[in-house]
UniProtKB/TrEMBL annotation:
Keywords associated with the record: Cell outer membrane, Membrane, Receptor, Signal, TonB box, Transmembrane, Transmembrane beta strand, Transport
Transferase in keyword set: no
Keyword match Transmembrane: yes
A Pfam family this chain is assigned to: Plug
Protein name: Iron complex outermembrane receptor protein
Protein's membrane topology: Multi-pass membrane protein
One Gene Ontology cellular component: cell outer membrane
Compartments reported by the entry: Cell outer membrane
Family of the protein in this entry: Belongs to the TonB-dependent receptor family.
Ranges of residues in domain TonB-dependent receptor plug: 125-251
Residue stretches making up the TonB-dependent receptor-like beta-barrel domain: 505-958
Length: 1004
C-alpha cells in the first residue's frame, strides 16, 4: 500500500509541475518506491569479514560501520558512490547497488588490518589497545604437535613453553610473562570457540607401586591441531580482564576452522614419521667402566648400552579428512582424524581419534538470526611406563637405565631377564615387562551460539556449552623379583568431569560522523563437576596366568578398600566493555568484570576486575600522514587487574576427621574411641589472588612492509597471594590458608620484528624475530622463606632445591656452593659459617630458575612451487638443578652402578658424600632448530577434481646447541612441596624426541 501511494504521488507531481517532474526524473524509480537502505558485507580477500570498516556516501556524507560479521546498512540511492575503508586495507570506491553487496578489500602491506579474536568478539588489529598476538594455522602447523600449547613454542614474545615430560600427550608448562604465583601453576585460561576450559585434570592419574605415581596427561591433547584456525594470546590485563578471576596467567583463545567462501572443499592431510631420543646422556661405556672400577666383582662380562635397550625409533602417523562448504546463508565443516604415535620409550603409545562438526546458518531477513554449533569428540588410548616424578632415585625407569652397570646383560644364560639381585636397583627391561598401564579418555566439547539482531546495531547473543569427559586408567604390576610390590597389584582409577556454560550478552554498535562506539554487557554462569573412584587388588596372579585383572579384578588376590570423591564449584559473572574510536585515530577501551565463586569464603565471594586502555594512531595525524616511510604507527597504554581462583575446593571451610590420636578411653577395658581431629582451619575471608598490570606498546609498519612489528614494556604484580602459612596462637591447626600482603613482581620488555626481505613473482622471503626479557622478584613475604622442589637421591629425602624469599626471584635455588675438588678429588664447599663443618647452615641462595631472555626466529621462503620454512627457539639467563646427574654421582662406582663420564674424568673421589650443591646447578641456555620444513605444491589445473597437492618433509628438534649436560634444557619437572610450585628442576621423567616426517596435503 505504501509503495503504491508513493508511485501515485510521484506520477501526480510529474504531471502537475515540470520543475518537480525534472527533480523526480533524477530519482531512481526503484528507490522512490522501496525506500530501503543499501545492504552488504565487507570482507578480505580470503573471505574473512572485516568488522569496523567505514562505509561512507560521497554525496550525502552519511557514514556507517560494519558489525562483527562485516555487514552494513546505509541509506543511499542506487548508483550513489560509496567509499569503503578500513585500517590495513586499500580504500575502495564502489557504486551502491540495490542487491546485497559483497565488497572485497585488498590488504595493504600493513599488518594492522588483520581481524583478530578478542574476548567475546573480534576487532581489527588497528583498533586493538591491549597486548595480544594472533597466530594463524599456516604459521603454527609444523611437525608433530599433540596439543595446542606445544604449537606456541617460539611463536609469541613473552610466552615460554617448558616440557614436564617428553611422553606423548604429556603436560607442558605455559608461562605468559613470568611466574605470577607461589602456590598454583602458571597455566593460562584456554577458551575454545567461546567455551572457557577448566585447567583441572580430565584424565585419571596412576597409582604408586613404588615406582612413582604417573601424572595425568595434558588436558588439551583432545583437540585435533589440524582443526585449529587461529590462536590468540591475550597477554596484558586490558585484553584479559574481560575474563576476570581466571585471567591472571593470560588467556589463550582458540578458534576452529569453518567453511570459507567459494566452492566446497575436501582436504586430506597426512604424515608419517619416526622419532628418536633427542640425545643420549654420556655415561660410562662397558670398557670405560671396567677401567674405572676397583672391585672386579662389578664386571659382569657383558656389554650393554642400557639407553639403547629402553629407547627405540618410534613410528608416528596422522590422518585428517575434512569437508567444508558454504551457502548464501551459512556454512559447515566436518572433519575426522586419527593419530597413532609410539613413544620413544618401549611400550609407551598414544592413539587419538577425533571428529568435529562446525555449522552456521542464518535465518529471517538479512540473517537477523544466526545460529552456530561447534562440536568435537575425542577418544584417546594411552599406554604408560613405570616412570613417575614422585619416585625416589630407586623407583624410576629412566634413572634405572642410566644407573645400570654396562657390563651387565639384558638376559641371562637361560634367556630370562637378568636379575641384578640388588635392592632399589633393577633391570630396566624387566621393569617394563612386569608393568602395564592403560588409560582411555573420552571427551566431548560442544556449544551452540545464537545471535539475534534486535535493532540496527543492537545484537543479543546467547552461548550454551558443555565439556564432558570420562577417563579409566588400569594399572598393573605383576608379581616380581624386586622389592617393589613383589606380590603384584592392580588399581583402576576413574575420573569424570562435566562443565556447563551459559553466556548471555548484548552488543551495540553506533557511528556518528567520526565517532564509533561499541558497548557490550553480559552475564556468564559456569558450573564445574568432578568425581572419581578407585579400587584395586593386591597379590594377583602371575603374568600370563589366568585372566588379567583389568578384565576381571576379582579373579585372584585380595581386594583393597575402594575410595572415591565428588566435588563441584560454580562461577557467576557480570561483565561489560566499552570501545570508542574517534576518526580512526584515538582509541579508548574500558572493561569491568565481577566474578562470584563458590571456592571462596562467605565474606569474599565476589571480586571486581577493571581495565582501561588508550590508543593513538599517529600515522593518521597530519604531521605524519605524508611521510611515505610510515604506513602505520600506533601507541598503546593499558592498566588493569585480573584474578586467580585456582585453589582447592572447600579450602575456606574447616575440615575434620576421626582419629585415635584425638581419642579418649570411654570404657574400663581401655578401648580407645576415636576423637574429632581438625585438619583445616576455616577462613571465610579468603579471596582471589589479584594481578595488577600496566603495559605500554607501539605497533608499526614501515617502508611498505619492509619492517613491521611491535614493542612492549610491561609490569605485572601479583598481590594478595594465597599461601598455607603458620597459624596464630590458639589455632586448632598449625597452618592456615590465607591471603598475605606479599607481592610477586614480573616486568620486562617484549618485541616482535618482521620483514619481507624479497617479494617477486617467483620468489619471496619473510623473516620475523620475537624476544622477551623478564625480571622477577618477591616482596613483603610475611614468613622468612618457603620451600619447594623436592630432590630425589640417596640420602636426600626431605631436601628441597627451591626457596621463595623476599628480594629474590621466585623459585630461587638453595644449596651448598661447590668450589671444586682438592688434590684427592674430595669435594670443597664454601664454609659461610666459618665453623669448619659443612652442613645445612652453609647453604646459599642462587637465582636463575627463570630464564631472563627467551627468543624465537621464524622464516618462510617460497620459490615458484617450492617452500622452505624454519624456526629457531632459545633462552638465556636460566639455570636447572640437574637432579638426574645427582643420581649418577661418583658414588655409583662403588655400588655396582654407572656414573656420568664427566664426574669420573674430573677425578672426583668415590668417597664423596652425596649432597645438593651447585655442582649440579647448570645453565639452561640453548638455541635449537625446532622446525625445518621443505615442501612442493603441485597445482593440477587440467584436473578439475584435484585442486592441489602439497608434499613436504620436515624435522623437529633437529639440532640443539647447549652446555647443559641433561637430556633437554627446556624442561620443568613437577616437584611440588606443601602446595608451592617447583621451578627449574630436571628429573629425567621422559626425554624429548627428535622427529622426521614425510607428509602431504591434498585438496579436492
Amino acid at each position: 500500500m505504501n509503495n503504491q501511494f508513493l508511485l501515485i504521488v510521484a506520477v501526480w507531481l510529474s504531471a502537475a509541475s515540470p520543475s518537480v517532474a525534472n527533480t523526480v526524473s533524477h530519482l531512481n524509480y526503484d528507490r522512490v518506491i522501496r525506500q530501503e537502505p543499501i545492504k552488504g558485507v565487507v570482507v578480505g580477500t580470503d573471505g574473512t569479514p572485516i568488522p569496523g570498516a567505514s562505509v561512507k556516501s560521497l554525496s550525502s556524507k552519511k557514514v556507517t560501520t560494519t558489525n562483527d560479521r562485516g555487514e552494513f546498512s546505509l541509506q543511499a540511492a542506487e548508483g550513489e558512490k560509496l567509499v569503503i575503508s578500513s585500517i590495513g586495507f586499500t580504500q575502495q570506491e564502489v557504486a551502491a547497488s540495490g542487491s546485497f553487496m559483497r565488497i572485497t578489500l585488498a590488504a595493504s602491506s600493513s599488518q594492522l588490518g588483520e581481524v583478530v579474536v578478542v574476548g567475546y568478539g573480534s576487532q581489527t588489529k588497528a583498533d586493538v589497545t591491549g597486548a595480544l598476538t594472533q597466530l594463524k594455522a599456516d604459521n603454527i602447523k609444523q611437525g608433530v604437535n599433540v596439543s595446542v600449547d606445544n604449537m606456541l613454542q617460539g611463536k609469541v614474545s613473552g610466552v615460554r613453553i617448558a616440557q614436564s615430560s617428553g611422553e606423548p600427550g604429556a603436560g607442558v608448562d605455559v608461562f605468559i610473562r613470568g611466574v605470577g604465583s607461589i602456590r598454583s601453576g602458571s597455566t593460562p585460561l584456554f577458551v575454545v570457540d567461546g567455551v572457557p576450559l577448566s585447567n583441572d585434570n580430565v584424565s585419571a592419574g596412576g597409582p604408586n607401586f613404588g615406582l612413582g605415581s604417573s601424572e595425568p596427561k595434558n588436558p588439551l591433547n583432545f583437540l585435533n591441531t589440524s582443526d585449529i584456525e587461529t590462536i590468540t594470546i591475550l597477554k596484558d590485563a586490558s585484553a584479559a580482564a574481560i575474563y576476570g578471576a581466571r585471567g591472571s596467567n593470560g588467556v589463550v583463545l582458540i578458534t576452529t576452522k569453518r567453511g570459507s567462501k567459494g566452492a566446497p572443499t575436501l582436504t586430506y592431510d597426512t604424515y608419517i614419521g619416526t622419532s628418536s631420543v633427542i640425545r643420549k646422556l654420556d655415561v660410562l661405556k662397558a670398557d670405560e667402566y671396567r677401567k674405572a672400577i676397583k672391585d672386579p666383582s662389578y664386571d659382569h662380562g657383558g656389554n650393554t648400552d642400557w639407553q639403547d635397550v629402553i629407547y627405540r625409533n618410534a613410528f608416528v602417523q596422522n590422518h585428517n579428512l575434512s569437508f567444508a562448504k558454504t551457502s548464501n546463508t551459512g556454512s559447515f565443516l566436518a572433519s575426522v582424524s586419527h593419530m597413532d604415535q609410539d613413544g620413544i620409550v618401549e611400550t609407551s603409545t598414544f592413539k587419538r581419534t577425533t571428529a568435529r562438526l562446525n555449522a552456521e546458518e542464518g535465518f529471517f531477513d538479512d540473517k537477523r538470526l544466526t545460529v552456530k554449533m561447534n562440536l568435537t569428540a575425542s577418544n584417546i588410548d594411552e599406554t604408560g611406563i613405570p616412570n613417575g616424578n614422585t619416585a625416589g632415585s630407586d623407583g624410576q625407569l629412566i634413572i634405572h637405565a642410566l644407573m645400570a652397570n654396562p657390563t651387565r646383560s639384558v638376559f641371562d644364560s637361560t634367556g630370562k631377564y637378568t636379575n641384578f639381585n640388588m635392592n632399589a636397583h633393577y633391570n630396566p627391561a624387566y621393569l617394563l615387562s612386569i608393568y602395564k598401564d592403560k588409560t582411555n579418555t573420552f571427551r566431548v566439547l560442544g556449544n551452540v551460539e545464537a545471535a539475534f539482531r534486535i535493532l540496527k546495531g543492537l545484537n543479543y547473543r546467547i552461548n550454551y556449552g558443555i565439556d564432558k569427559s570420562t577417563s579409566e586408567r588400569n594399572s598393573t604390576i605383576y608379581p616380581n623379583i624386586t622389592d617393589r610390590t613383589p606380590l603384584g597389584a592392580y588399581v583402576q582409577n576413574n575420573l569424570s568431569s562435566l562443565t556447563t556454560l551459559l553466556d548471555q550478552y548484548l552488543t551495540y554498535n553506533r557511528s556518528i560522523n567520526k565517532h564509533q562506539f561499541e558497548l557490550m554487557g553480559g552475564f556468564s554462569y559456569q558450573k564445574f563437576q568432578f568425581a572419581g573412584t578407585a579400587f584395586g587388588t593386591q597379590g594377583i596372579s602371575k603374568q600370563g596366568e589366568g585372566v588379567d585383572p583389568e578384565y576381571n579384578p576379582g579373579y585372584s588376590g585380595t581386594p583393597t578398600a575402594p575410595s572415591g570423591y565428588a566435588q563441584e564449584n560454580e562461577l557467576q559473572s557480570f561483565f561489560g566493555r566499552v570501545n570508542y574510536n574517534y576518526d580512526n585515530k584515538y582509541l579508548v577501551t574500558a572493561s569491568l568484570r565481577a566474578d562470584g565463586s563458590t571456592r571462596f569464603g562467605e565474606d569474599k565471594k565476589y571480586g571486581y576486575f577493571p581495565s582501561f586502555a588508550l590508543g593513538w594512531t599517529l600515522s593518521r595525524e597530519g604531521f605524519l600522514k605524508d611521510i611515505s616511510a610510515i604506513q602505520d604507527l600506533k601507541l598503546r597504554a593499558s592498566w588493569g587487574q585480573t584474578g586467580n581462583q585456582e585453589v582447592t575446593n572447600k579450602i575456606t571451610q574447616a575440615s575434620y576427621a576421626l582419629s585415635p590420636s584425638a581419642g579418649y578411653y570411654l570404657y574400663d577395658d581401655h578401648t580407645v574411641v576415636n576423637g574429632v581431629l581438625v585438619n583445616r582451619t576455616a577462613n571465610p575471608g579468603l579471596k582471589w589472588e589479584m594481578v595488577e598490570q600496566y603495559n605500554i606498546g607501539v605497533d608499526f609498519d614501515l617502508w611498505k612492509g619492509r619492517l613491521y612489528g611491535s614493542l612492549e614494556y610491561y609490569n605485572k604484580t601479583t598481590k594478595d597471594p594465597i599461601l598455607n602459612i603458620p597459624s596464630g596462637p590458639l589455632s586448632p591447626t598449625t597452618t592456615i590458608w590465607k591471603n598475605v600482603d606479599a607481592q610477586i613482581v614480573n616486568k620486562g620488555f617484549e618485541f616482535m620484528l618482521g620483514t619481507t626481505l624479497i617479494r617477486t613473482k617467483d620468489f619471496s622471503w619473510s623473516l620475523d624475530v620475537n624476544g622477551s626479557t623478564l625480571s622477577n622478584k618477591i616482596k613483603d613475604l610475611p614468613v622468612s622463606e618457603l620451600y619447594s622442589g623436592s630432590i630425589s637421591g640417596p640420602g636426600l629425602s626431605g631436601v628441597n632445591a627451591n626457596i621463595y624469599k623476599n628480594g629474590y626471584e621466585a623459585g630461587s635455588f638453595f644449596m651448598l656452593k661447590h668450589l671444586g675438588y682438592d688434590k684427592d678429588g674430595k669435594d670443597i664447599f664454601e664454609d659461610i659459617t666459618h665453623d669448619g663443618v659443612i652442613n645445612s647452615s652453609d647453604r646459599q641462595i642462587f637465582q636463575g630458575a627463570i630464564p631472563n631472555f627467551n627468543f624465537g626466529i621464524n622464516s618462510q621462503l617460497r620459490y615458484k612451487a617450492f617452500d622452505l620454512g624454519f624456526s629457531f627457539i632459545g633462552q638465556t639467563g636460566g639455570y636447572l638443578v640437574n637432579n638426574t646427574a645427582l643420581d649418577l654421582n661418583i658414588n655409583s662406582l662403588v655400588s655396582d652402578r654407572n656414573v656420568l663420564t664427566k664426574y669420573y674424568e674430573d677425578g672426583a673421589n668415590t668417597a664423596n658424600q652425596v649432597q645438593l650443591s651447585s655442582l649440579y646447578l647448570e645453565k639452561s641456555d640453548f638455541i635449537r632448530l625446532s622446525n625445518l620444513r621443505l615442501g612442493y605444491t603441485l597445482t593440477l589445473a587440467k584436473e578439475a577434481w584435484l585442486r592441489s597437492l602439497n608434499i613436504y618433509v620436515s624435522a623437529q628438534n633437529l639440532m640443539t646447541i647447549t652446555g647443559y649436560s641433561g637430556y633437554d634444557p627446556l624442561v620443568n619437572t613437577t616437584k611440588i612441596v606443601g602446595g608451592n610450585q617447583s621451578l627449574g628442576v630436571d628429573y629425567a621423567t621422559y626425554p624429548a624426541a627428535k622427529t622426521f616426517l614425510l607428509g602431504a596435503t591434498v585438496k579436492f
